[in-house]
Amino acid sequence: MNFSRIILEWYDLNKRLLPWRNTNEPYRIWLSEIMLQQTRVAQGIPYYMRFVEAFPTVQDLSSASEEQVLKLWQGLGYYSRARNLHATAKIITEKYNGKFPDTYKELLQLKGIGDYTASAIASICFGRPEAVVDGNVYRVLSRYYGIDLPINGSEGVLYFKELAKEIMDAKNIRDYNQGIMEFGALQCTPKNPDCNSCPLQKSCVALATNRIDILPVKLKKNKVRNRYFNYLVLVDENKQTLLQQRKGNGIWQNLYEFPLLETEKYVGHTEVADNLKELVALEEPSEIYLYNENKIVHKLSHQHLHTRFWIITFESNLENGIQIAELHKYPVPVLIADFIKTFKI
């Protein structure tokens, strides 16, 4: 059975009409690939459309402020991708005169572009014979060939990359690479794949050995860290509040948030009041109360944020205060954005 030919035939009949499928322009392919890393297509499309409208070219993205970029990215998560996107746009504009390099090796040198993205851009935009290996490709190859090497281990990564190179259709690389990724997304899905209608079913090792549900194999993830966030939402008599920008290399770098009291467990009114003076140089508040009685647990890849919002009102004015009605203009983590949508005072 000719694996690549079947993938190409399937793709021709089943490919979705996606907004980046009607172009080979590197900027738009790059944008879509960065956005779709660990993001579902349905969720990514509106972000892609807003970015293209706001920044039609890589030069437009380059000249934007980081705050503009982070605000448009808000809700997609993994904000380092947005910062890398912005940095790479500047490099392409300034070093490459607005034109993307057309080889895998050169693309790989750009910030935020790894093996998968470099292979995707080189093959889809420039017809280079580079094999793509993303989560969908890992799943298809692991099941079809019955490979139980962990896909997130160093040995597995190298093995699957070499296998992908061996079986790719170099002459039709644009459609083949998009086809095998689409096949994994629509046909060979993570759960309940439609094996009865699969054109590869007759030679699929996982189907023949009843291992569809256990392939691909992944090494166990690191232990999840629990953190306890107490956001202090300060409100003065003019309905102003305070935001601060997160610094350092932790989560949400350069996004805005309310003053934060991080603790080792859930705390009550007394602990919040006792720590308030260390965080905010103001007179005694007139009221402190918990906004969300129900627990909010915001789950990230390696940490769970147990979050409470405390409303703290003052009769005096806050220095450098922001009107509560203007909060929506700032790039914030989705956890904060959800609170802002519901907060009324």
From TrEMBL:
Organism: Arenibacter troitsensis
Domain HhH-GPD, chain residue ranges per copy: 35-186
Enzyme kind, highest EC tier: hydrolase
UniProt xrefs under InterPro entries: A/G_AdeGlyc_MutY, DNA_glycosylase, HhH-GPD_domain, HhH_base_excis_C, HhH_motif, MIG/MutY, MutY_C, NUDIX_hydrolase-like_dom_sf
Classification lineage: Bacteria, Pseudomonadati, Bacteroidota, Flavobacteriia, Flavobacteriales
Family, similarity comment: Belongs to the Nth/MutY family.
Domain of life: Bacteria
GO biological process, one term: mismatch repair
Segments traversing the membrane: none
Protein name: Adenine DNA glycosylase
